[in-house]
Amino acid sequence: MQYEAKTPDEYIAAIPEERRSVMNSLRKVIKDNLPKGFSEEINYKMIGYVVPHSLYPSGYHCDPQLPLPFMNIASQKNFIAVYHSGIYASPELMDWFVSEYPKHVKTKLDMGKSCIRFKKIDQIPMKLIGELATKMTPEEWINTYESNIKKK
Fold first, then answer.
1. Cα 81 to the chain's mean position, in Å?
2. What angle do the packed helices 126-134 and 91-100 form, to 10 degrees?
3. Over the stretch 6-26, which tens digit does the pLDDT of each residue have?
4. Domains in the chain, CATH or no CATH each
5. Which residues, at least 6 apart from 30, have a Cβ–Cβ distance to it below 8 Å?
């Protein structure tokens, strides 16, 4: 689902009440663990963590007006989602996450290319998501992103 919000606080206020606490916890664990340099904002109608233009003036290649996206969280119709571009771009990070996931959650991993879906909101592995957030600095993400763009 998409919510018309201008700030992360407005986004949280717009989602169903039963999800607000979990989304606030998810937001906090990411903000507490992301390396310095990422910015929190509304990005693609979700709460996003981006490399701002002040660090990466080129912006996102699909739309240079936008900052470089890194991580997003969203309340979707049937699940809460964590989107992590680094997992999609780095096979090593993907392998790490897939191997760590069962150590934190008994349910099967429900994942797309960069989307991790949590249908049972009481089973979101906050500690693991926090650790995932630490795995790339903005500079490392820029390097990974640029090396993947050059391959195309």
1. 8
2. 160
3. 999 999 999 999 999 999 999
4. 8-151 (3.90.1150.200)
5. 49, 71, 73, 129, 130, 133
